[in-house]
């Protein structure tokens, strides 16, 4: 299922086989929260920009259109016309992000919907049932994403409960995968390591969840308030305690620099809203840092966003034209920026894979970090 092809230091170059195809790692998952990439990007575009896995959100799809409707439509792959792997987040992050709208108990979490205020209950079993209805390739375990800087006692209690919830998730997924009307009977469950910035809690939890022999493991609860140095330290101490022969997924991270550093620490999977969110606000990524295309200096700039870039925007359109679209509030401008940013991320992952294969990851990482820190050209 997961095979390491080669290593360069702790950086791993692997492939991961799923019922919806084999993916090459390290990889970046393009975030389509409500079964769509924000910025008018269709699934037919995703293949053109090198996307291997699309990520959707359990909570948001449960709220609308409803996971039972998605199941009725044949599952998420058929619903959104995507034949490659899909990973669904468990709804656990909403336990963190909707803190003002929820109440946590041993059974699960009661939310008030952010859309219409109605009460929603979600526990491990409900999260697995929703994800089974969505029929994603990879389902994430239901957890609590505790604030990175929460006090120790809170984090200890939260992580202990998350560990108990994971066992319930595993049992429920096994049950669901055996049912005759389940669309994807090969759905995979990834466990999630939590523990805020307490290294002993992280390590203890990593050891505990590794015993469950799951197809993959994620590190959650980072990039939520701690410094980059704290995040890298937690990766340094935690990743060695997760099974090396399974994919390691760093949830919700991050910037190109974050990804380069995390790959160096043995991480395989990444996802983040940055490329699409920044693109919608005219901020585009290049190897020389980020640019704001609304800046006046691009008004008559006939170059592409980045010279040599193979994205659909850079192939045909100038900075001046895209800036005009953005200033005129034409959706096409936003779409071009999102397409470019997602291509940039996916292409960077391809470069990372090649650098690991060729045993030059350290020099690639160093030159890329220096280039990114150089600011705009």
Q: Overview of this structure, please?
A:
The protein has 377 residues and is of the alpha/beta class. It has two domains: 2-272, Queuine tRNA-ribosyltransferase-like (TIM Barrel), CATH 3.20.20; 282-372, no CATH class. Helix content is 42%, strand content 19%. The protein contains 15 helices and 16 strands. The chain has helices at 43-48, 58-63, 67-72, 76-80, 92-97, 124-134, 152-177, 199-210, 228-238, 256-263, 274-280, 312-316, 319-327, 331-357, 361-372, and strands spanning 2-8, 11-18, 21-25, 27-31, 54-57, 86-89, 102-104, 109-112, 119-122, 138-140, 188-193, 216-219, 248-250, 269-271, 283-286, 289-292. The strands form four sheets. It has an eight-stranded parallel beta barrel, surrounded by four helices. Strands 1-2-3 form a three-stranded antiparallel β-sheet. It has a three-stranded antiparallel β-sheet with strand order 7-8-9. The chain is globular, with a radius of gyration of 20 Å.
């Amino acid at each position: 299922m997961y095979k390491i092809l080669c290593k360069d230091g702790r950086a791993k170059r692997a492939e991961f086989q799923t019922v919806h195809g084999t993916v090459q790692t390290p990889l970046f998952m393009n975030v389509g929260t409500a079964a769509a990439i924000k910025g008018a990007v269709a699934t037919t575009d995703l293949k053109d920009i090198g996307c291997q896995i699309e990520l959707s959100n359990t909570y948001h799809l449960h709220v609308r259109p409803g996971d039972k409707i998605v199941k009725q439509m044949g599952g998420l792959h058929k619903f959104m016309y995507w034949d490659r792997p899909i990973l669904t987040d468990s709804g656990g992050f909403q336990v963190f992000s909707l803190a003002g709208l929820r109440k946590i108990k041993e059974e699960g979490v009661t939310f008030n919907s952010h859309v219409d205020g109605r009460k929603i209950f979600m526990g491990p079993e409900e999260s697995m049932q929703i994800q089974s209805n969505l029929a994603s390739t990879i389902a994430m375990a239901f957890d609590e994403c505790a604030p990175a800087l929460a006090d120790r006692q809170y984090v200890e209690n939260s992580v202990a409960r998350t560990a108990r919830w994971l066992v319930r998730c595993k049992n429920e997924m096994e049950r669901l995968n055996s049912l005759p009307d389940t669309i994807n009977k090969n759905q995979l469950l990834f466990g999630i390591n939590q523990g805020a910035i307490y290294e002993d809690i992280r390590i203890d939890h990593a050891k505990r969840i590794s015993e469950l022999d799951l197809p993959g493991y994620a590190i959650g609860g980072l990039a939520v308030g701690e410094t980059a140095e704290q995040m890298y330290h937690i990766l340094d101490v935690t990743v060695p305690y997760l099974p090396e022969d399974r994919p390691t997924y760093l949830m919700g991270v991050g910037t190109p620099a974050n990804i380069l550093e995390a790959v160096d620490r043995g991480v395989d999977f990444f996802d983040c809203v940055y490329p699409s969110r920044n693109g919608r606000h005219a901020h585009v990524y290049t190897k020389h840092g980020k640019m704001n295309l609304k800046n006046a200096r691009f008004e008559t700039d006939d170059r592409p966003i980045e010279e040599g870039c193979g994205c659909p925007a850079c192939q045909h359109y100038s900075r001046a034209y895209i800036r005009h679209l953005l200033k005129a509030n034409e959706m096409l401008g936003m779409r071009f920026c999102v397409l470019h940013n997602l291509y940039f991320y996916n292409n960077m992952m391809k470069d990372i894979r090649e650098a690991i294969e060729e045993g030059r990851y350290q020099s690639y990482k160093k030159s890329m970090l220096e280039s990114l820190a150089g600011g705009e050209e």
